Amino acid sequence: MTIQSEVTTALEAVFQPSELIVENESSRHSVPPDSETHFKVVLVTEQFAGERSVKRHQRVYGVLAEWL
What we know:
Blueprint: H1 3-15, E1 19-24, E2 39-44, H2 53-63
Antiparallel strand pairs: 1-2
């Protein structure tokens, strides 16, 4: 299983998103080919309603702590 798919699965399980995009942006950085070190995440979920962006980020980082 790739890191990208693990991250996607973890976020889906916790947030039940209406939209989730996990894009591997590693190729845009100075890393070896086929690396999985840099990701862009777009996550839309009802669970974020009324939360400030800092709190949203903290919740996502909490789920992804294993990979950070």
